[in-house]
Amino acid sequence: MSPKAKTDTELWCALEGLDDDLLDPALPTDVVADELRRLGLDPVALAKMGSGVVAQLQEQERLSWRAKALEKRARLEGRGARVTVPAGMSKAAMLARLEELRSSHPRMGTAVVAAFRKRKPEESTDEELRGLLEDMELLRSIEDDEEEE
């Protein structure tokens, strides 16, 4: 018959009193089990509880990527909401800003060139230029943030 179940506090107090030698992996498990029984603990139940805690922590660790990804997504979406191109910006000003981004940010320059691979920038509509400029400004913002980290 196993001993009466202990409260968490009683269990903690009993485990605090364990001799550090009992934590030595080379110590035979029957010696550890005898000491736990002497303290009024059920070694099998304690091992099962410990395995449950370990499994729970491993599951939390396995899923932690999701919380980090959601946080990063929210940060990026917030940044995207802040990046805007003024509605009244002229086509010439948008083209000038795209050229500035292309020449000052090498990685972004490739994206700007790729966006115009089938036609000249001047042939784009204002809406297309505004969309491209917003995307490029967002990329610049993300790139700047990554450099700060």
Describe the structure.
- There is one protein chain.
- The protein is built from six helices and no strands.
- The two termini are 58 Å apart.
- It is mostly helical.
- The radius of gyration is 31 Å and the shape is rod-shaped.
Distance between the termini: 58 Å
- What is the total domain count? 2
Major sheet description: none
Secondary-structure class: mainly alpha
Number-wise, the strands total: 0
Q: Beta-strand percentage?
A: under 5%
Q: What proportion of the residues is helical, as a percent range?
A: over 70%
> Shape, please?
rod-shaped
What do the pLDDT scores average to?
81
Question: What gyration radius follows from the Cα positions, in whole Å?
Answer: 31 Å
Spans of at least 5 consecutive residues with low confidence = none
Give the helix tally: 6
Compressed to H and E, one letter per element, the order equals HHHHHH
Keywords, please?
single chain, 149 residues, mainly alpha, 71% helix, rod-shaped
What's this, in brief?
With 149 residues, this protein is mainly α. The protein is 71% helix and 0% strand.
Helix and strand topology:
Elements: H1 8-16, H2 29-38, H3 43-82, H4 91-104, H5 106-115, H6 126-148
Helix pairs in contact: 4-5, 4-6, 5-6
